[in-house]
Amino acid sequence: MTRGKRVGVWILAIVILTMAALVIVVATFDWNRLKPTINQRASDALNRQVSIEGDLSVDWQWPSGDGGWRHWFPWPEVHAEDIHIGSPDAITDADLVRLKTLDITLSPLPLLGKTLPLPAIGLSGGAANLTRLEDGRNNWTFDLGGNDQKEQAKEDGSKENGWTVDVGQIDFDPIDVHYQDAILAANIEATVQLLGQPIAFNELTDDDSAVSQTEDRQIGDYRFGWKAEGTYREQPFSGSGKLGGPEALKQRNIPYPVQAKLDAGNTQVAVNGTITDPLSPKTVDMDLSFSGQNLGDLYGIIGVTLPDTPPYSTRGHLTANLNTQDALSFRYRDFDGQIGDSDIHGDLTYRMGEPRPSLKGEVVSRQLRFADLAPLIGADSNAEKADRGETSRQPDDKLLPVEEFDTAKWKTMDADVKFTAKRVEHGDSLPLEDIYTHVTLEDGEILLDPLRFGMAGGNLNTTLRLDGSQSPMQSRVDMHIRHLMLSRLFPDVELMKNSSGELNGDATLSGTGNSVASILGSSNGDLQMLINDGLISQNLMELAGLNVGNYLVGKLFGDEQVKINCAAANLNVKDGLAKTRFFLIDTENALVKIDGNINFGNEALDLTIEPESKGARVFTLRSPLYVKGTFKNPSPGVDTGSLLARGAIGAFLGTVATPAAALLALISPSADEKTPCNDFLSQVKTDG
Fold first, then answer.
1. Of 48, 419, 582, 685, whose Cβ has the fewest other Cβ atoms within 10 Å?
2. pTM (2 decimals)?
């Protein structure tokens, strides 16, 4: 053997002996001696208490399935017991993480390429405690050293240290997680565990879902399951779901599967879809459905201001681009659902910006049940509230809704939403055909412009402003009723079917208060109305549900159907008290004048009805009629203490103090068109 060969053999022998000695030392070394050093170094690095309080040992294992020369390099397996990672003392004295045992297998060779490979991680007896305070501080954000240098490196465009972590198989028994959040008023207990067998993503995705209809993407299986219960925003909370495996977490730009079903109070939420790069989220793409007793309840759950409604359910598709410098926007598109007995469809975008988040989009209902709109004005009935287990707010003796609008919610969000109801389901007494409105909400002020109702062949155009930024709320409504066909207002009246008459009117009111009752009770403005070429009868009053009208018509005309030539009313409202400037009904055989006032503040009625015969019929009524009482309990009767002053029609009209011909602008006939109201109102003006 040559000298060179002998030297080579000795070097190889020394290397082998050195490695063997190293393995023997590692295998026999008491690693517990290093615990104080490891604990101190880890605590200094994480700026919190870290300790291994149980046994610490290192074993060796030969890699399986790794052929070639790498197979000759054993992998160290670290075993540690009773591990604690603490929390900042200023936040909580509970540990962030506790582990009964931790086993980590390390592949040493990739360390040469700045990769930390962890082929296998095993956990047992795990528990986590996550806490966030009202000021936003939490115990899961680590204050790591070197952050300033890292940020500077990013600004300079240079790379960081270049190390990557490669996590392989994770095995653990159920981990208990306690989550306490003062900002969300959440106190939740959860459990995370491995699924017995992986579940393919498409097994939990409906065939007709928007996620399943997207182009094929590499989506991993569900590997983890979780359950949770507790309180969220002071409401009972429970939920369960599934998550993708750890291998999906480390792959960039690959969708990570997420599935969950949640119950928060009376609200149920279900999501099924993906988050791209969940450790640094880029996009959200998932089906979202939610249901509950009242859309308004969602404010307490997701912070979005929505109106109070009957029970609802909806399903759509949620998308978001989180990798942007602009304000985050979440789009809920192509959703379908029900509110009460009404269907809804649409597309909404929620933008988280300054000074307030905003909601924008369009909602369409193919068939709207008008009663489902009642909660919007606080007109929810006591019976419906009882069905939902709520306490009644509407007094038994009040007709106008007293429930107050929650204007505080209006100041938390802006909105720009269009709503269309193509067909309206209603009772016989309310012949609505369709609804359209454009709702804007800005800094606590709601504007509905227009709020348009198709009704009885005509329309009711309204502009409504509710300024919730002021306390009490300031309100104004401008309403214009045009060309409501009497034949369609009362389709069940046979004689009315041939009527060509119309109802027209204007109203302008402003008021102060946070409920319909308080607004009308303080209102100021004017109301005027004109009806031409109709008829009146007891049967008509019964169809309209007007018991008082039925009584008055019976007293005035008996059971006959009486033709109305013209009915005109003009009322002035001041501080909630509506007084008649004039209120006249011209029929074929009598002229009827109504005087008095209507008090919206206490809902009191004080009206006097005086008829004057035209000679075609001689009235047997010798005393005026009256309507007193309240809106809820009106009391009609005969004023036996007074007698009707009989006289000529001209003298009768002369008692009207205000000219009435200006009301002709409500019908705006063409130059050669005349209605029964033209001559009548001109006569009132002449004789007045």
1. 685
2. 0.75
